Amino acid sequence: MSVKIRLQRHGKKGKPFYWVVAADARSKRDGKYLEKIGTYNPNTNPATIELNLDSAVQWLHNGAQPTDTARAILSYKGALLKHHLDGGIRKGALTQEQADAKLAAWLEAKAGKVDAKKDGLSKAQADAKAKALKAEKEVNAKRMAAAAEAEVAAQEAEQEEVVAEESAEEVVAEVAVEETPAAEEVVAEEAPAVEEAPASEEAASEGEEA
User: Fold this and answer.
1) What pLDDT digit, counting tens, does each position of 45-79 carry?
2) Closest among 69, 71, 42, 68 to 59, alpha carbons compared
3) In sequence order, what are the beta bridge partners of 18?
4) Do 64 and 83 touch, CB atoms closer than 8 A?
5) Predicted model pTM
6) Spatial CA neighbour of 20 closest among 2, 34, 114
7) H-helix or E-strand containing 150?
8) What is the separation of C-alpha 181 from the centre of its chain, rounded to a whole number of angstroms?
9) Which DSSP string do the residues of 41-88 spell out, in sequence order?
10) pLDDT tens per residue across span 93-115
């Protein structure tokens, strides 16, 4: 029986979650499997991988063939390296202690790289958040400045309107003052003049009295 180490899809639509399984090569992708040896979650950054290293190496010893994606996962977790080191032990090229030391050193270096990547991602996220906050503050400051300018402009317009109204009232008052004497003159011109008696008539009246 040919055995493959491959991924079996689970999870929601748009958010896949995979099991790493050893299964008969003739079975369906999501069908029956012989053993679940790990999980793979690509929805996180970096991707989260859990693997039973001993089971994976044992299946490799038994001749199981990983798919391309499964091979990358096994390499990432050190299963292929352990399989290679175990081959060296069987041939007598290495002792168990040497193989374990090499595997431990490799796993430690790999963990350091993963931690560095996580730190870099965290720093990038923090920088992006700080940049977004700064941009938001600048936008708010501009909005507040624009509102203040609009308020000042409204106050100035209101003051100009008040001044214009006061000027108009003063003009109306001056016009009224100027028109009043003219009206009095018109009335004086229209009033009838008192007629004076002729001088001859006054003299005649004086003679008669004498």
Assistant:
1) 888 999 999 999 999 999 999 999 999 999 999 99
2) 71
3) 9, 40
4) no
5) 0.54
6) 34
7) helix 96-190
8) 75
9) ETTSSSPEEEE-HHHHHHHHHTT-EE-HHHHHHHHHHTHHHHHHHHHH
10) 888 888 889 989 998 888 888 77
